[in-house]
Structure formats: structure tokens, C-alpha cells
Amino acid sequence: MSKTKNVVAYLRISTDEQNTGSQVEAIKRYCVNQSWTLKKVYEDKGVSGAVDDRPALNQLKKDCMDSKFQAVLVFRFDRMARSTSHLLECLQLFNRYGVDFVSVSEGVDTTTAVGKMIFTFLSAISEFEREIIKQRVVAGVRKAQAEGTHCGRPRKGFDYAEVIRLHKEGWSLRQIAEKQGVSYVTIYRTIKGVTKTLKTSPPE
Questions:
Q1: Is the pLDDT higher at 136 or at 68?
Q2: Does 100 lie in the same domain as 148?
Q3: What whole-number distance in Å separates Cα of residue 118 and Cα of residue 151?
Q4: Is residue 116 part of a domain?
Q5: Over the stretch 144-182, which tens digit does the pLDDT of each residue have?
Q6: What is the model's pLDDT at position 58?
Q7: Which domain holds residue 191?
Q8: Buried (b) or exposed (e) across 36-45, using 16+ Cβ within 10 A?
Q9: Most distant pair of Cα atoms in the chain: their distance
Q10: Which helix (H) or strand (E) holds 46?
């Protein structure tokens, strides 16, 4: 039997789903089996998992930094994040403040040795993904410049690799522009110039 601890749950449903009832029940059963106390449920409704900025998730992160609980439970990984990089970002935050993470459906619990191993594995995969994207972006920019496409000096804080990563994860050009703090046209030209050399095309 696991040591008693105060935990919270994070739930998310997209616009084509009806409710979070099944998620809640599965998480409650897990808490009972572990003798954990479920103190609060954070819930985002009608929000895509591809969007990092969500009201309930933002509040959960803030409360995590205030040490208000000892573990976060989700029904599945994709309820927390759709991309490896975003999931890892959340897990690293939890780890930094001594908060464990549990995915009920996948049977992942960072309070266990196996859970810690999976966390390490995700970190390695995320780092590999970042390096591959960075290499492809650099190669794409160089090829585009060689073919006469202008890839001018970006404004401070503009991240080519981040733009391409978000684009590949399905973010719209306007969402990327807002996140980067630049215009839609800037993002469109960047993706058009770089992805042209990678044999892809930006969405309309």
C-alpha cells in the first residue's frame, strides 16, 4: 500500500467529446487503491491538446510551484499534452517541485522505478527530436538562401526551430504567430521559405 498523499487530477475534453465522467471515475479508483486523497480536479473543456496555453492547466502549474499537492493524475498522456516536448515540459516542472505524475490508463507512475525510467526515456526522445528539427531547419535555411529565397535576420526571440516544430505538430500559422509575438505574414514567409526545401507546404 502506497504512502498517503494529497493529489490532484487534470482532465481535458475536446469539443467533440461530451464529458469527463469516465476520466474522473478511473482516477478516483486509482486514488482509492493507493490510499491517496484527491484534493482537487482541474478541468479544461473544449480545448485541443495541441494548445499549450489552457486556463486549468496554467492554474495547475501555478499551484504546483506553490507546493499545494504531491502528485498529478491524468487518465491518459494525451489529456495533458499531445506532443512529447510539451509533455516533458510539464513533467520537468512537476519533477522540479517534487510532484509525482501518474497516467492511469498507461500505468505510468513516477513514484515507481519504472515510471522514473520512462521519464528519463522521454527526456532523451525529446532532446533527439529537438536536435533533428534544428539540423533540418539549418539545412533548409541554407538551401533556401542558396536558391535565392530571402531568410532575413529574425527579430529578437524568434525561434526558427520552434516555429517548424509547432507547424509540424498541427498549430495554425496564426497560433504560431501569436505565440512567437510576430505577424502572421512573418510566420507564413518563414515556413514557406524553409519548408519549401523540405518538400512540404504551409497550410492555407
A1: 68
A2: no
A3: 39
A4: no
A5: 656 655 555 544 446 777 777 777 767 788 888 888 788
A6: 92
A7: 131-198
A8: bebeebbbbe
A9: 65
A10: none
